[in-house]
What does this fold into?
Amino acid sequence: MAVREYTEEELQLFEEIKNGRTFEKDEELPPLYKKALKNLLWMQHDSEYSGSLGYAPWIDKAPTMQEKVIVAQIVKDEMRHASVIYKLLEGLGENVLGHIEKSDLAFKSEEDEANIGFKRLKEDYRVNIFYYGINYWEDFILFNFLMDRAAGHQLEDTLESTYLPWKKGIEGIYKEEIMHMAHGDKWIKILANGDKKEFLQERLNLWWPRVMNIFGSTKGRSNDLYVNLGLKKRTNAVVRDVFVKEIQEMCDEAGLILPEYREEDQPQR
Ligand SMILES: [Fe+2]
Ligand SMILES: [Fe+2]
It folds into this structure.
């Protein structure tokens, strides 16, 4: 969101939120709050929706029957997450079906090794990691291992959101994301102990900057606005540090090398 000075009214709103003010469905929302909330909901909706579609081909391509069932469950979970957010957006007066119909949420980049940095490839709101194709089983697993973990950390903040309908919806979503993550963790160990470890490392090198980029520029101020509005608890920079520490430990354990990441080296918007 654009950087500008806050009005007296807005500063007072931050203060009230700090002191425990929350918002209910059908309540008239302060304009700044409503705009920020809608931003986050649109981002989540399009991410869940395009995530589900990106996973779907792996129902057929998963290596065992048991895994096909697990992948199908994950595909269903993600579309259900999208539907929860869909309802919240509709409640805020947004035309979500119209947006789905005119967007190309199934779109995936054809370039296997691209790094788009902070860029967007379409006119939608998805977190930009969802533009990349999931081309190998290792990618699917890395998505669970990295992205579901990152999402889990972000959703952890939403568990305490000041927008109560979202807070309520997120409880089930959070639990399911934790299951997806556990699936990734289980498979990272299997793959790191197998004969495709080198390939797993190659794909990790590719996906690492992509997932780090989802935290955006850690210098931006907009994230503090979300904190001020009680829509997030921690800034992206803080969540990113917790996430990196966890991944570093797990990679050490699995004998994988976490590549170096520098925000300033990433292709900019
Ligand atoms: Fe999800
Ligand atoms: Fe997930």
User: Anything to note?
Assistant: Residues 48, 78, 81, 173, 177 surround fe (ii) ion (ligand 1) (CB under 6 Å).
